[in-house]
Write a structure and sequence with these properties.
49% helix, 27 helices, alpha/beta, five-stranded parallel beta sheet
């Protein structure tokens, strides 16, 4: 707390606080937004559409004030002036009640001022609260108490005294009621006219606090579109709950990533309810953060939520235990442009060094690179597969037995939902195929953050985000920064390598080492990812705790928008945040590899290779060239 403010408070016996935008903040950008939420809630609860409610509500307040002259009005007087075709006075009274409940739900404590309030409580100051507001005293008391302001001596509300701070009459009444002189009181508020000038005009010391300060990473002004009520609501909420002192990665999670998790969780909850599913399995590792977010908003015990360890490698081997043809093996290989012979073998669960004689026979070695797109027509690769197929099946059968035991152990049977980040539904496909061959009663319904257009058609799968964010209806535009997305979804544990049967007969999970452990740089990146996830979950939890989740209708576009802004239209601060991030698929890769423009002139081939090797090419271009260019458009012309 500011030293001068503390000294000023120490000099007075009485401390007066304004309420709204001082002790309490609203999670809306402007008062009109409240009326939009009121209309939305009434229409949802009663199934009756009301047109132009905002305009009618604003007009009614003006009429009520006109009738009352300089006197303050109460909410009942406002609603006496509202006429809505088709609605009875009783129904209009219900809307008034909804407005009061909405006001309660959208408020939060202004933490810097709450610190001042708590100092006053600790130092036994006589605390009064003075507000120009049409809401009733009971509603305001409820708001104050619910946000930790229960210790005060008096509350003066203009709707009940019919006097206003803005005219100065409220201050005269307060001093008279308390039986004190102005110099005994210090008033704290945000309005220059009502809280500062008028209080001083009545001999009261006053402190004018700074109004709503924008601390968002991306202000609405920087966003090239109209701001919807839900977007405005979210941004106000974020701005009210973040502090400039918060870690920048935590803030990124809270502001950018949190809305995506909330939007996805609300969508998943709705989809699961519609389908009547009673079991949800979140696949490791990307599914862990999705599970945490879903648990924040889940308010029912009717659905069982579980975490299921799975990976492409751990399911691919059991899949190969059947009589899998070469083309089917190629279909389940990692989606990358190039594959080494070593990777070709390791994806079958084999060590290429154990087959060096065979490899030599075909004139290749472990570092020989094959094109992923041409693999099905690669006669040499097919012949090698056929030669080692018996060995693959022998290993795969053991792992399939362990997998089947794990499936039964975890109860992944019957009609179930499986959840993952995306993008093609390969894990669901492999699991379903194995279940069909083994005669297991498993019917999976996949729910993904995003699905590519080329996602597997053989499975029942749904994507939260399948298409457009941009005006040109560009689809799948996350593909230009999937490395960034997968980084922030990654749990703080290694990937599953395989399922085993232990000596005691129980299923054992063999895990790979966590990528972000060991050396200092890796550990630091892991800590940054953890901070991002901490911030994102905190956002979802805060929204849920304050009972705001149901008020927010977050479309897929709204949920993804800020992350898309970072991924496809980054500014300098975005580049600085993720410049050093590594990405691990089969091997270590870079989100932005080098990106020094000087290299273009000294080592042009190396510069181009760095560009190709970067998983976030727009980030690479922005870092290297620095100037303002249509990098997203350039990326689209180049292709993925």
């Amino acid at each position: 707390m500011d030293l001068k403010l503390r000294e000023a408070i120490d000099e007075h016996e009485y401390v007066s606080f304004d309420m709204f935008d001082t002790l309490i903040k609203r999670n809306v950008a402007c008062p009109r937004d409240v009326f939009v939420l009121v209309q939305r809630r009434f229409e949802a609860d009663y199934g009756i559409a009301i047109r132009n409610f905002c305009d009618k509500r604003i007009s009614a307040e003006k009429q009520a004030r006109s009738k009352n002259g300089n006197c303050e009005i109460a909410i009942d007087e406002i609603y006496e002036n509202i006429e809505i075709n088709g609605l009875s006075r009783q129904q209009i009274g219900i809307i008034r009640d909804i407005e009061e409940e909405t006001e309660k739900s959208i408020c939060c404590a202004n933490m810097p001022v709450k610190e001042v309030y708590e100092y006053c409580v600790e130092n036994n100051k006589k605390i009064i609260i003075v507000t120009d507001m049409y809401l009733s005293c009971d509603v305001l008391v409820s708001i104050l108490v619910s946000h930790g302001y229960e210790k005060y001596d008096k509350l003066y509300v203009s709707s009940e005294t019919k006097l206003r701070k803005r005219t100065g009459e409220m201050y005269e009444f307060v001093l008279s009621d308390l039986g004190i002189k102005g110099k005994e009181l210090i008033h704290i508020g945000d309005s220059k006219k009502s809280d500062y000038i008028e209080s001083r005009r009545h001999g009261i010391d006053s402190i004018l606090i700074t109004g709503q300060k924008t601390i968002l990473r991306k202000s609405p002004k920087s966003i090239d579109r109209g701001i919807s009520i839900d977007d405005s609501f979210i941004r106000a909420f974020v701005n009210n709950h973040l502090s400039e002192k918060d870690d920048e990665y935590y803030r990124f999670g809270y502001e950018v990533y949190g809305r995506l998790l909330l939007g996805f969780s609300k969508w998943l909850k709705s989809e699961v309810k519609k389908s009547g599913l009673k079991d949800i399995f979140f696949f490791s590792r990307d599914g862990l953060i999705l599970k945490k977010a879903y648990e924040c908003i889940n308010d029912t015990n009717e659905v069982k939520i579980k975490y299921f360890y799975a990976s492409r490698r751990a399911l691919r081997l059991p899949f190969l235990a059947g009589d899998i043809k070469y083309d089917e093996y190629v279909d389940v290989l990692p989606r990358k442009k190039k594959l080494t012979v070593d990777e070709f073998f390791s994806n079958m669960g084999l060590d290429v060094h154990s087959y060096s004689e065979l490899v030599d026979t075909y004139g290749v070695n472990e570092n020989t690179i094959w094109s992923r797109n041409d693999l099905k027509s690669n006669v040499l690769a097919k012949e090698i597969y056929d030669k080692v197929k018996a060995d693959v099946i022998a290993i795969a059968k053991k792992e399939r037995t362990a997998l089947l035991n794990y499936i039964k152990q975890e109860g992944l049977l019957g009609k179930v939902a499986v959840v993952d980040i995306g993008w093609r539904g390969t894990l669901q496909y492999l699991l379903q195929k194995i279940a069909e061959v083994e005669g297991l009663d498993i019917n999976t319904f996949g729910y993904y953050v995003g699905l590519e257009r080329g996602a597997r058609s053989e499975i029942e799968a749904y994507g939260f985000f399948n298409s457009c964010l941009d005006a040109d209806r560009e689809c799948e535009n996350w593909r230009y920064y999937t490395g960034l997305i997968e980084n922030i979804f990654m749990s703080q544990e290694g990937s599953l390598q395989k399922y085993n049967i232990g000596s005691d007969g129980d299923v054992k999970l063999t895990m790979c080492d966590y990528e972000f452990s060991g050396d200092k740089t890796a550990i630091e990146q892991g800590e940054k990812i953890a901070k991002i996830q901490e911030g994102a979950i905190a956002f979802v939890q805060d929204v849920t705790n304050e009972h705001l989740s149901e008020l927010m209708n977050i479309s897929t576009i709204e949920a993804f928008y800020d992350l898309n802004l970072v991924g496809n239209h980054p500014d300098r601060s975005d580049i600085d945040m993720f410049d050093s991030f590594l990405f691990y698929d089969v091997k270590k890769e870079y989100l932005i590899k080098s990106g020094r423009i000087s290299k273009l002139f000294i080592q042009p081939r190396a510069f181009i290779q760095d560009f190709k090797d970067s998983r976030w090419k727009i980030g690479f271009m922005k870092k290297a060239l620095k100037i303002s260019l249509p990098y997203y458009w350039i990326q689209k012309q180049i292709g993925h």
